[in-house]
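User: My instructor asked us to take a sequence, write out its structure as tokens, and then describe one feature of it. I'm not sure where to start. Here is the sequence I was given:
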Amino acid sequence: MKKQLLVTAIAMSISLCGFSQTKGTNAVSFGVNSTTNKVTGSGYEDKVKNNSFTLGYGYFFKDNNKIGLDLTYGLNKNTYNNNKSNQELKSYGGNLSYQRYFPLVKTLFAYAGGKAAYTHSKNNSLYTNTYPQSTSYTSNQYAVGAYGGITWFVSKRFALETNLLSADITYSKTEQNEVTANSYFIKNEYTSFNLSSQGFINNLGFKIYILF
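Assistant: Let's start with the prediction itself. The structure tokens for your sequence are:
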């Protein structure tokens, strides 16, 4: 009897260390972030609304190795009555990623991987003060990078993941269009190239996975 219990305990501990990272497992992730900030004073009211949504799918093509696709959408609206201006920023994009998991303790894993991403954004600003004018920015950004972090496979169906380290190379092209009160039109185009890295605990964020 004791021998059977020992074998069962060993089998359970092995399964705890291995579930959800095995070949053929699917992982669906999602995220919603919504904030509103309102400042009211004598004769004015400023309001800032930020909303972002993410949806992702991953597939373990072999044990502890996952490929994934993430889609993102963001909408930010700012209204400033004190200087009579409105701003709206829309962005959407996606990224392809690869992650490899390394067991640490039971269901806690470290991971490292890489990704390629694309983001399109458009920012419109309208000023209706003494000299009305409108300005719009359209940007396309491309990025490749490496990153790593920690994943906790809470149960067979759920996991919680955070990103701790990252390094990215980005290229972006932005077009600016401005129309003034006298219909004077200005158009600017500029590009940028950037290499950046973020250290331990910087830009801490979490992702929730549903596994099946």
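For the description part of your assignment, you could build on this observation: The chain has one domain: 2-211. Try explaining in your own words what that tells you about the chain.
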